[in-house]
Amino acid sequence: MNPVIESEEQKDLRAAVAALGKRYGRDYITRTVAEGRHPTELWAEAGKLGYLGVNLPEEYGGGGGGVTELSIVLEELGAAGSPLLMLVVSPAICGTVIARFGTEEQKRAWLPGIADGTRTMAFGITEPDAGSNSHRITTTARRDGDDWLLTGRKVFISGVDVADAVLIVGRTEDARTGRLKPCLFIVPPDAEGFRRNPIDMELNAAEKQFELVLDDVRLPADALVGDEDAGLLQLFAGLNPERIMTAAFAIGMGRYALGRALDYARERTVWKTPIGAHQAIAHPLARAHIDLELARLMMRKAAHLYDAGDDVGAGEAANMAKYAAGEACVNAVDQAVHTLGGNGLTREYGLASLITAARVARIAPVSREMILNYVSHQSLGLPKSY
Fold first, then answer.
1. Nearest Cα to 162, choosing from 201, 213, 106, 117?
2. HSE of 211 in the Cβ direction (CA atoms, 13 Å)?
3. How far is it, in rounded angstroms, from Cα 70 to Cα 245?
4. Dihedral sign from CA coordinates of 53, 360, 167, 121
5. Where are the strands (E) in the chain, listed by range?
6. Which residue in 235, 269, 308, 322 has its CB near the most CB atoms, within 10 A?
7. Which residues are catalytic?
């Protein structure tokens, strides 16, 4: 498939998900946030329709597609004003890692539930002192007989309160070199020594953020996902889809904000002329549309490369897509609010809250500065500054 042109099946998927999103919309998400709960109705219906697991293997209840199809789902829900952040975490990261590297028992235990939405996994990588640098993770796992003991801290972990397990990134000692290498473990939230503390966020979102404390959490041998020596390969098998899906999240949000601004610019009349007829209004909106389309093209390229098995090429493209989408989203939201003027700050139009939400795409899961570092080193061959 050409990575730019969508297949008929993908177009049909996009239209179907857009229709689902329209039935829920921004008001639904706003209401769930106000009520302090998760968007369980939308999540359940999306799972029943097969959208949550569209990227997972058919033999485990998925749709047999890839991150290309899953990014379409998140983008269209976002464009309708009702994005599901846990799509990034549960099927995109955790589902992908288990599908690619999990044992047969792990696949059968987790993938069908992730695909239909009846089971959810959170993902724990970020640490207080490591930030975006996965090489500085200090959460460690050590053997104790046949078991593992996991100790460390994680921060800004989404959706732990609704998760049936957390896929934790820790580090184990290489017996040959003594160096620490990354490994992934499935950790049940009710395990002894596992504590979660909610983080008080000013960001209004249905998905809550948590600090995790792991104090010698004992795990059986089969809690380890994949090969103990695969390390970074398994880790980035989850992180590349995370960046692609974050781009989809940002593009969807930007499209939603732009759509609200366009409706207003067509209808709002000053001196008998719609304000959208004035170039001072029209041109910035046109630029916002162009930037979102450019980011979408890079996102499609990244998804195409990843689904084709080109992990190296997908790594570069996924970082670029996430960067471009974050910038395009922030600019689209800013211009949408500006187009509405004072109305852009009212609760009635629901755009002001996106000013904060749009920043997430610049910050998480990796900051734009770290992406610029990656491109500087990996793409351009410039020396590292650290």
1. 117
2. 11
3. 8
4. negative
5. 121-124, 140-144, 147-158, 165-173, 180-187, 194-198, 209-219, 224-225, 269-270, 273-274
6. 322
7. 242
The backbone torsions φ and ψ at residue 379, rounded to the nearest 5 degrees and listed phi first, read -90, -40
Q: Distance (Å, rounded) from C-alpha 29 to C-alpha 173?
A: 44
Q: How confident is the model at residue 172 (pLDDT cuts 50, 70, 90)?
A: confident
Q: Report residue 150 CA to chain centroid gap.
A: 25
pLDDT tens digit sequence for 329-361: 999 999 999 999 999 999 999 999 999 999 999
Task: Give the model confidence (pLDDT) of 58-115 as tens digits.
Answer: 999 999 999 999 999 999 999 999 999 999 999 999 999 999 999 999 999 999 999 9
Which residues is 142 bridged to in the sheet? 149
Distances, alpha carbon 129 to alpha carbons 153, 183, 195, 215, in Å = 10, 18, 19, 17
pTM of the model: 0.95
Contact 55, 64 (CB under 8 A): no
Using alpha carbons, select from 257, 243, 255, 359 the residue that is nearest to residue 301: 243
Specify whether the CB–CB gap between 90 and 121 falls below 8 A: yes
Q: What is the DSSP letter of 82?
A: -
For residue 249, pLDDT over 50 is answered with: yes
Beta bridge partner(s), residue 184: 169, 225
pLDDT, averaged across the chain? 94
Dump the DSSP string for 9-55. HHHHHHHHHHHHHHHHHHHHHHHHHHTT---HHHHHHHHHTT-TTTT
Residues 235 and 130: their CA atoms lie apart, in Å, by: 15
Looking only at the bridges linking them, the beta strands covering 165-173 and 121-124 are parallel
pLDDT category of residue 27 using cuts at 50, 70 and 90: very high
